[in-house]
Amino acid sequence: MYQQMIFVNLAVNDVAASKKFFTELGYTINPQFTTDECACVVISDTIIAMMLSKEHYANFTQKEIADATKTSETLICLSAESREKVDELVDAAVAAGATAGQVQDYGTMYGRAFDDLDGHTWEIMWMDPSQVQG
After folding, report:
1. Residue 48: helix, strand or coil by DSSP?
2. What is the dihedral of CA 6, 11, 17, 22, to 10 degrees?
3. What is the pTM of this model?
4. Which of 37, 124, 114 is nearest to 9 (CA)?
5. How far is residue 92 CA from its own chain's centroid?
6. Please, which residues bridge with residue 78 across strands?
7. Coil, helix or strand at residue 80
8. Contact call for residues 76 and 121 (beta carbons, < 8 A)
9. Cα dihedral 91, 95, 98, 99 sign
10. CA–CA separation, 114 and 78 (whole Å)
11. Count of H helices and E strands in the chain?
12. Of the residues 96, 102, 110, 129, which has the maximum number of CB atoms within 10 A of its CB?
């Protein structure tokens, strides 16, 4: 069965620093789609984050590239299997140089956020599976 994938493309200042940052969070880099100008970060089997140098990113748009340290261009939200996994990932991100963001605790939903090295906001969220209607 076909599984649709998502490729999140983000403009970064330093591809090598982004590779290091995301590998420190436990993600892998797919060397087949990684060059000096972009890093292919494998989040899961169906989620890929492409970290593109700003020069390379500019090849794909005619719009001005946002400075994510000053403007919110997107909120990337990833699920986690538990509250503890939320904390582990965000704590690892902060240890690797990220800036911690908001904590959201609604009892049946728990999340934390961080801004990566380039200011892109990542939210990590856990939802109590017994409360999710399917």
Report:
1. strand
2. -20
3. 0.91
4. 37
5. 13
6. 124
7. coil
8. yes
9. positive
10. 12
11. 3, 8
12. 110
